[in-house]
Hints:
This protein is mainly alpha-helical. Helices cover 69% and strands 2% of the residues. The protein has 14 helices and four strands. It has helices at residues 2-34, 37-62, 70-93, 99-104, 119-142, 149-167, 192-217, 220-230, 232-237, 242-268, 278-291, 298-316, 321-335, 343-354; strands at residues 178-179, 183-184, 187-188, 270-271. Strands 1-4 form a two-stranded antiparallel sheet. Strands 2-3 form a two-stranded antiparallel ribbon. Helix 7 (192-217) runs antiparallel to helix 10 (242-268) and helix 11 crosses helix 12. It is globular. The chain starts with a helix and ends in a 28-residue tail after the last helix.
Amino acid sequence: MTTLTQRMRAHSSLTALGGFAVAAILLFAVAPAVLSDFRLNLLAKFLCFAIVAAGIGLAWGRGGMLTLGQGVFFGLGAYIMAMHLQMADATRLGNDVPEFMEISGIRELPSFWQPFASGPVAILAILILPGLVAAVLGYGVFKRRVKGAYFAILSQALAAALAILLTGQQAIGGFTGLSDFRAFFGFKLSDPANRQMLFFIAAGTLLAVVALVRQLMHSRYGELLVAVRDQEERVRFLGYDPANVKIVAYVVAAFFAGIAGALFTPIVGIISPADIGVVPSIAFLIGVAIGGRTTLLGPVLGAIGVAWAQTALSEQFPSGWTYLQGILFIVVVGFIPAGLAGVWPMLKGAYLARFAKTEPPQPEPVEQPAEPTPVEEKVHTR
């Protein structure tokens, strides 16, 4: 049995390596060769959404936590990166404050901007702050055993509150947000080669995130996370604290969302409260649900596919895409709970159930025991 298990794991690892190799070839060789600079930049934007989706797939698909507030952590990473880029541009121009502050009449740099003038500090804040906020929120929520619809509503309320808070803060751009970034850590964003570099960074980050999620899913922690999703009370009875298990998944998902937001800012060139509120958070979730939340690649492909469809169809049907997105989400949730990743197994099972039925094996005839031969009694006469 042990040998068979080892062989299955080895086969799964080889399959995963092959899949990563194919994905790397498509992202690093095929995409730059066949896509224009504009389309390549769009794909880089979609990859940022896929990074967020990978974390949601872990927290929601494996952990059962309906995370409707990933825009909070996405926005934290995005705004930290935007503040650093604005400060770097102001330093190169010899200004004390970014240009949008001068236009708004702000002559003195706010104190909370000053740490992000340093590149290493900004990167550390992007890597630490979203996860730290998620850990604090998760501890307060999961330790009180808040779950299900209550957790979803709470997380969505946090996203709405952050968007409203940022809208009223003119020191962070207000409703219009932060934009007009000229350089990314010394590389001019107007140069097509540097924008292609951003695409490669996003592609490499996505592959690393998917590899990490796969490792977590196939580890003992992944099995424990699924157990908490399905039988939380039984896991608690076995001596584990389900709250701690959920907090880890929630923090990992927030960590991924923060990185995605930080990459989104220089790729798109703008970040505003409209990009991190309730609607974007739900859009992240729709992509995961359509792709297949319980699988590894379903959330990633679903997020990319939904973002591509939104870009392509909204150009032709600006007012109809929202309705189409809602209908697609309802159809998937109502009739294909496993998402598009579950369509093929469902069709295969239906085909086998209908056309591949085999006649039940006939029982082998049982040989009847031979009747005993009557023994003739011999009567001896004298």
